[in-house]
Amino acid sequence: MILFAKLKAGAITFPYDYMTLQRDNPLTDFGDRIDVDNLFPATDEATTHGATLVPVQMPEQPIFNHFKREIRVDPNPTLSEGVWRGLWYLVDIPPGPMPEGYKPPFDFNVPGGPPDVI
How distant, in Å, are the alpha carbons of 2, 8, 17, 83, 94 from that of 61? Predict the structure, then answer.
């Protein structure tokens, strides 16, 4: 999988996607096109400010439990042997609030603890 990063004056904006392109160019109508790598070279960022867009090679996404974790992109790609590489990382999803009026089937705080489970 390939994502993109914008390089400008030593600063890296990653990932650089269509939403970021629109935010950086609010007065530009890109029409129905969403191919960032082809649209970027004509932007003011590229033509006037010297920014460049580089491909960032991403590893295969890990397999994980989508109910307990979510995947994110590490915002700091690295350049190694002429190739930009990115990483994924997983974040635990905190448990949601209990529904109002919910009562557990037993009280863990009573002396003797919860009932035995068979």
Answer: 12, 28, 18, 19, 21
* 77 within 8 A of 5, measured Cβ to Cβ: yes
pTM listed for this prediction: 0.74
pLDDT of residue 54: 96
- The answer to whether 23 and 7 have CB atoms below 8 angstroms apart is no
Closest CA to 21 of 2, 47, 40: 40
- The helix/strand count (H/E) of the chain reads as 3, 7
- The torsion angles phi and psi of 45, rounded to 5 degrees, stand at -55, -45
**CA terminus-to-terminus distance, the chain:** 47
Q: Give the Cα separation of 115 and 118 in Å (integer).
A: 10
Lookup: tokens for 36: 């960032």
Positions of E strands within the chain: 2-8, 11-13, 52-57, 69-73, 78-80, 83-85, 88-92
